[in-house]
Amino acid sequence: MYTGVYGQGMRERVRLRIEEWQIDDGNLSELAKHGATGKTVHQVWREQPRYRYNRKKNRTATHEMVGPDRGGKMWVIFIKEVNYQPGLWRPITGWEAEGPDKEWYRRNK
Known about the structure:
This protein has one domain (2-107). The chain contains three helices and seven strands; from the N terminus they run E-E-E-H-H-E-E-E-E-H. It is of the alpha/beta class. A seven-stranded mixed beta sheet has the order 2-1-4-5-6-7-3, with helices on both faces. It has helices at 25-32, 38-46, 99-107, and strands at 2-6, 13-17, 20-21, 50-53, 63-68, 74-81, 88-96. It is globular and about 35 Å long.
């Protein structure tokens, strides 16, 4: 599945190829600390999320996936492509979106 990634001000756009997710005990544990699950990651991915570069530099996650789950709850999931395996992405952590992230999502529909 190819998807657009929005950079600063939507002027910068690149394409991501996300085919599948690498989910294991390590990242499930980190997601759970913030109320998210592997199911959350898949639901947000399938519900037309928006992507952007991770705004915090020098972090493990390179991108943020922002969008709703099937129930409409908004999430921010931090993700990184697995080295040497194009299309395979790993969720690093994630949590329920707050006001600024929800607003960014609405502006970039």
